[in-house]
Amino acid sequence: MNNAVVKPDYDFSKVKSIMVGRFSSGKRYRSVSDAVQNAFIQNLLANGYDVVLDAKVKADCIIEGSVTSFYKVREERIDNVYYYGHCGRYSRRRNRWGSMPLYDAMAYNNTVNIGVSARMTDVETGRAVWSDSFNNESWDEDFAISGAVKSVLKSLPKEKVSDKK
């Protein structure tokens, strides 16, 4: 679920260049915050924005934020597969006549959950103009990160937001 908040009467159509700042996180997942920052860069470039990385270059806005949560769950299951030479069959169970283990098959089930929070600040005024957050879960770390970032950026307006009173 997105939690987007947008500054009323801000003209997002004038935003052409965006500086991507740091995405803070705990020490445990520092590399994840770098991956989130890179995912924002990729998605903004794909949406036609000029992405600024050097603070000496003027940008219209700055996007920065934080990795609010990140965890992996890994489940493992080992299945012993046995070969019965007298009948030429494979089975996952031993029979009473004995059997020879053929191999151990490992099955993994990974789940990755990530929470991303982002805000956009207008460089000229220093005011926040947009903020959103999203939690995503996937079987792959890259998919979880890119999915969370894409969902956050979906709420970024492309034109002027009118004041609805």
Description:
By secondary structure, this protein is an alpha/beta fold. The chain has one domain (5-154): 3-Layer(aba) Sandwich (Rossmann fold). The chain has 2 helices and 7 strands; from the N terminus they run ββαβββββα. Helix 1 (30-46) packs across helix 2.
Show the helix and strand layout:
Elements: E1 5-6, E2 17-24, H1 30-46, E3 50-52, E4 61-84, E5 89-91, E6 100-122, E7 128-138, H2 141-154
Parallel strand pairs: 2-3, 2-4
Antiparallel strand pairs: 1-7, 4-5, 4-6, 6-7
Give, in order, the helices and strands. Answer: EEHEEEEEH
Return the CATH topology: Rossmann fold
Corresponding CATH architecture: 3-Layer(aba) Sandwich
Helix fraction?
10-25%
CATH level 1 name: Alpha Beta
State the major sheet.
7 strands, mixed
Helix run count: 2
Question: Main attributes?
Answer:
alpha/beta, Rossmann fold, 7-stranded mixed β-sheet, 2 helices, globular
Q: What's a concise summary of this model?
A:
The chain is of the alpha/beta class. It has helices at 30-46, 141-154, and strands at 5-6, 17-24, 50-52, 61-84, 89-91, 100-122, 128-138. The protein is built from two helices and seven strands.
